[in-house]
Each structure stands twice: as C-alpha cells, then as structure tokens.
C-alpha cells in the first residue's frame, strides 16, 4: 500500500510503501511533547520531497538521530532514529487517511534510554 503525507503546510512531502504494523509511542521528551507516533521502515520504502529551503534538521543526544521538520510550519513527518539509523521513522500522524484508533500502538520507554 502507498501512503502519502506531509507536514502541515505541505512543503515537506513523503510517500511510504508498506503496511503499517506496530506503531511506537515513545515517551522521551521530544516524542512526548510533539505527539510523534513512529512507524519504523526501511529507507527504500520512503520517498521524501522538500520545497525549496523548508527542510530543517534537529540533532540531539548522541548525534545519531535526525529529526527532520519544516521551517515553515514546524511539523516533523520523518526522523532517522538512533535505534534504527539504517531506516526511517515515519510520523503516522502526518499520513493521509490513517485512523490512529485502529493502529497497534506499543509504548516505548525512551525517557530512560541512555
């Protein structure tokens, strides 16, 4: 199945090929504050398009994780997670037509991750 999504203003667009299985609800500070719900996918499953200079990157902690967000609206549809740096974490809240209530959401203790 092909999922399409974007940031709020549409400057960052993503297409993801696959079936949404388990979704991760991490309780680290950034995920908790932004409401990010992670769908971990291989990088080959994702096409990422950015308008002009709208793409911004936030790097924190160990420096491995990359939080890609829109300079215009601030929404983050995609991340490169520290625990799976060979893939991407797609924010399922940014995908069109996904009903959050129907997903298999697993809690993850990212708050205590060192």
Automatic annotation (TrEMBL):
Q: Which domain of life is it from?
A: Bacteria
Q: What family is it from?
A: Belongs to the Gfa family.
**Listed name of the protein:** GFA family protein
Concerning InterPro entries, the annotation shows: CENP-V-like (IPR052355), CENP-V/GFA (IPR006913), Mss4-like_sf (IPR011057)
Residue ranges of every copy of the CENP-V/GFA domain listed in the record: 3-109
Q: Which UniProt keywords apply?
A: Metal-binding, Zinc
Q: Does the keyword ATP-binding apply?
A: no
